[in-house]
Amino acid sequence: MSDAFEQAVTWANDDPEGFWRAAAGLVDWITPFEQVLDRSRDPLVGWFTGGEVNTAANCLDRHVAAGRGDMVALYHDSPVTESRAAITYAELLDRVARFAGALADLGVRKGDRVIIYMPMVAEAAVAMLACARLGAIHSVVFGGFASRELAARIDDARPRVILSASCGIEPGRVVPYKPLLDEAIAQADHKPDHVVILERPQARAALVEGRDLDWMELESRGIPVDPVPVASTDPLYILYTSGTTGQPKGIVRDNGGHMVALAWSMRNIYGVESGETFWAASDIGWVVGHSYIVYGPLLAGASSVMFEGKPVGTPDAATYWRLIDRYKVKVMFTAPTALRAIKQQDPDCNGLKNFDISALKALYVAGERGDPDTINWAHRHVGVPVIDHWWQTETGWPITANCLGLGLYPVKVGSPGRAVPGYRVEVVNESGVPQPPGTIGSIVVRLPLPPGCLPTLWGNDQAFIKKYLTDFPGYYKTGDAGYMDDEGYLFVMARTDDIINVAGHRLSTGALEEVIGSHPDVAECAVFGVTDSLKGQVPVGLLVLKAGVDRAEAEIVEEVIAQVRREIGPVAAFRKAAVVRRLPKTRSGKILRATMQAQANGQPYKIPATIDDPAILDEIRATLLALGFDGVLIPEG
Ligand code: COA
Ligand code: AMP
Q: Which of 146, 203, 270, 386 is deepest in the core (most CB within 10 A)?
């Protein structure tokens, strides 16, 4: 094991306040904090209370003031528009300060919310940092979500302004954003004062007079503003993520703790310093994009790559290797599904041979379990450590990881590593009793969580306590299940709730069921995740029709699929559904989703003793076979 890693773990566990006080030196404070950890509102905690900071100033002004203004902050690389840009720290600061001034002109003040619904353009980063500069709270909504999801976020965050673009660009098609946004605003009860649209040449948007403004015109009129001091505990952003219902959860991130944790992680987990290039091939709509495309690399004074494209098809399966070579990327972060996509198209990784990727020191993966086949394939071809690490939107930065910056310890393929210093991870049974090594249980983190993790849910402390801190007193419930081995390596096996993971994207089957259930012909439905060789999991829906409905089943299925795409978005990848006569249930009426999921996955399963009508499983089996799931579907015992 690495000595530096062991020492950091010991220090963080024995003296967390001393450990994080030292890490806070990585951040510039406007007013020094009075307390490292404030537990006066237990179980809610505040990090670095009494301190004042500005996140944008730490990401930009500080580096420019230190003479690093000519260094590249962002490489924007967009094979889908065939454009590239290298934006220096000085240039980015200038744009952010001016755009912040323009937002202030629209009335945006400290504490106001701003929704950002944008594709992977540099302006999206400008928007996030401009909000941070004003102390306004941004909430980025992923471009692959459609109106219903966007409307739910508008009503919860109640933004003064929404920032968007005329379109996103997906391989082979332009996705106009404005109709989706207009529809979402029409659906939402809350109406923003203004909408600011970045017009892209691929599809221009019609502006609503009085409400909508042209981004470039607005930015050009903006008078640069100075960073606004905010309390360390003030929210920097809200990022909505799937919960167990259709209502997404607003994960809150603070300013001070977030900066300390990210700055520490850039140096100690990823081993990246100022002057080096880091690339997280994700989207600003996800937490990975927030932490490791925008805030983390900029806090570190590194160069970050912002990529508008896919791992394959834009233009080919060598695009990752091309960019690593082009920008001399030292550490890259991607999702296993992206590597599977490359592996499917270029199994021998021939595309790599044309590029020099010698700058690369490690390839980190997260977002879903790093399956051994994919990890081994990548390691064999890329030739650097391929490191699975585990975290979630809620934590904002890795919970378990092998830390390049502290010296790597041996990789165990199939495990995302050991707990990162600052996190005390345990596996407990249903009663909250810690389990011995090798025994599966709920994965929990002992309270208090380290800096950077969610302090609460937006506007709802009680929901935060109930959802995360109540089932296992003294712990934060991650919602994941797995086990730890006798050397402290964690193995994450499954979710304990109805969240599924589709191409590294987190989706709630409950939300899909709500949309499907709202179809006028559907009486009830069940959605579950089925294993997929590319996306990890894909959702499958089984529907029971209302009595008396005599329309063609295929037509209803088609409508339901279109409705999910229209309301939740294409990112749900909902393509497989069928009508069934009944759903299997327990005698108390609980739908047996796990049994159907096992059937579809070809996993051994037992007929539950509590089932009300065992014969129905044969019908489900026939339906799943007809949908193309052809595994072993015979009940055990
Ligand atoms: N705006 C609009 N539509 C979007 C979108 C966006 N920002 N992102 C995705 N979509 C659409 C896609 O066009 C696709 O539509 P389609 O049904 O018409 O084909 C659908 O949503 C599903 O997209 P995606 O999940 O990206 O699947 P894909 O088949 O296009 O590509 C992969 C598969 C594996 C290449 C892709 O999912 C990928 O790169 N994944 C990496 C995931 C990742 O980075 N996760 C972040 C966590 S670390
Ligand atoms: P998200 O909040 O979208 O980042 O999703 C977080 C969830 O994705 C986790 O709770 C896990 O279920 C899953 N996940 C993320 N990274 C990993 C990993 N390395 N191994 C296994 N599951 C992961």
A: 270
Residue-wise pLDDT for 131-182, tens only, equals 999 999 999 999 999 999 999 999 999 999 999 999 999 999 999 999 999 9
Span from the CA of 292 to the centroid of ligand 2 (angstroms):
15
Let me know whether 469 and 538 are in one domain.
no
Q: Whose CA is nearest to atom 16 of ligand 2?
A: 367
Would you say residue 189 lies in a domain?
A: yes
AA identity, residue 606: K
The residue assigned the tokens 């304990």 is 496
What is the distance between the alpha carbons of residues 291 and 307, in angstroms, rounded to a whole number?
Answer: 15
Per-residue pLDDT tens over the stretch 85-96: 999 999 999 999
Q: Hey, whose CA ends up nearest to atom 7 of ligand 2? A: 392
Q: Per the structure, how many domains does the chain have?
A: 2
Index of the ligand 2 atom closest to the CA of residue 494: 12
Work out the pLDDT band at 634, boundaries 50, 70, 90: low
Contact 19, 39 (CB under 8 A): no
Question: Do both 469 and 616 map to the same domain?
Answer: no
Residue that is last in its domain, among 431, 463, 483: 483
Pocket of ligand 2 (CB under 6 A): 241, 287, 366-370, 388-390, 392-393, 416, 478-480, 492, 495, 501, 506
Average pLDDT, the chain: 96
Domain-embedded: residue 494: no
Task: Tell me if 545 sits within 8 A of 556, measured CB to CB.
Answer: yes
Residues 471 and 518 in one domain: no
What is the domain extent for residue 10?
3-309+389-483
DSSP string, 400-438: B---GGG-PPPP-TT---SBPTT--EEEE-TTSPBPPTT
182-228 pLDDT, tens digit per residue, is 999 999 999 999 999 999 999 999 999 999 999 999 999 999 999 99
* 118, 63: one domain: yes
Q: What is the pTM of this model?
A: 0.95
Cβ atoms of residues 113 and 134 within 8 Å:
no
What is the domain-level CATH number for residue 568? Answer: 3.30.300.30
Separation between Cα atoms, residue 173 and residue 202, nearest integer Å: 10
Q: Is residue 454 part of a domain?
A: yes
Q: Is the residue at 578 inside a domain?
A: yes
Q: Determine which residue's CA is closest to atom 41 belonging to ligand 1.
A: 338
